[in-house]
Amino acid sequence: MANQIPLTKLPEKKTLWAWTLGTFFGAGLLKPGPGTYGSIAALLLWFGSIHLLHPSPLAQAIGTIIAAIAVTLIGIPAATIVARESGRKDPGHVVIDEAAGQLIALIAIPADWRHAALSLLLFRAFDILKPPPIRQLERLPEGTGIMLDDVAAGILALICAQLAHLFF
């Protein structure tokens, strides 16, 4: 993309906590497709925690909701700071928005690879295609716009995954 700053030319002044969280612990610095890496990182953390802790389905859903809300609330200021320091409206290396959206897409999903993969595919499709009203959310200011279009894509992916689970 023409408006992307090469990683070798990232700004010298970085707010460490914002860059660490905004890039979702470096997943956003991977190429190609940093958004997909951010989504996969969130899915792997979710999958690992589910299989480590063995929560009930209700506890799993509640924990995923709490994680998605926390990532979203932390992501708004982190994305704002990284965008400002990068000099770009929606820098590709900010992937905490993909992590939040992916977590939303995983709410109430059975903890197996088949359902997790469907959730990932649906979320990435909605995030990339941005059907209405997702595209309009990008117009919100700074980190709010960066985060909320992915939150909406996660909600659509969750609805479609739940319908697929119900009917198939």
Question: What does this 3D model show about the protein?
Answer:
The protein is mainly α and 168 residues long. It has one domain (27-167). The chain contains 7 helices and no strands. Helix 2 crosses helix 4 (96-105), helix 2 (34-53) packs antiparallel against helix 5 and helix 5 (113-129) crosses helix 7. The protein is globular. The model has no long low-confidence stretch (mean pLDDT 93).
Give a short summary of the structure:
InterPro entries: PgpA, PgpA-like_sf, YutG/PgpA. By secondary structure, the chain is mainly alpha-helical.
Can you lay out the helices and strands and say which pair or pack?
Layout: H1 16-22, H2 34-53, H3 57-86, H4 96-105, H5 113-129, H6 134-137, H7 142-167
Helix pairs in contact: 1-3, 2-4, 2-5, 3-4, 3-7, 4-5, 4-7, 5-7
